[in-house]
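FW: tagging you since you asked about this chain on Friday. Here's the raw sequence from the shared folder, copied in full. Didn't touch anything.
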Amino acid sequence: MSRLFEALPYRHVLTLPTEPSAVRLCRQTAEQTLTEWGISLRHPTVDPALLILSELVTNSVRHAVTLSPQLTVIYAAGSDCLAFAVHDRHPHQPPLYGAAIGTGAGGLSTVMELTLGLGGTAVVRGDADGNGKSIWITLPL
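HL: got it, structure written out here
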């Protein structure tokens, strides 16, 4: 786990089957969790963050389901930072910054446009065994 995520005082982990209903459930969980943490759903970062999260979970559902029957979402926050990761057990690590400059397609382009537009960061981290990855997003609040 990233040191940043370990340092953030609020954390929540959700593991779901890699199926279409995961998108709705992870978004509902995010909304509930943010509210419990005292982060207003009207904060200007929240709607784009929820869209980013939905796109990343949708990508896992579409592309990783054959090798990853489950996906995990990690939510974290502090007073000035919102962070989350989507993990699955598919080994493909998409080039995020290629998506940011228009060489990617679809959801990852949206993810990167929103992330960078908000002054956030994105990184793909492979599992130690090479058979999975997490996409980590950090956004300022």
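FW: The radius of gyration is 14 Å.
HL: agreed, and The longest strand covers residues 10-17.
FW: great, closing this out.
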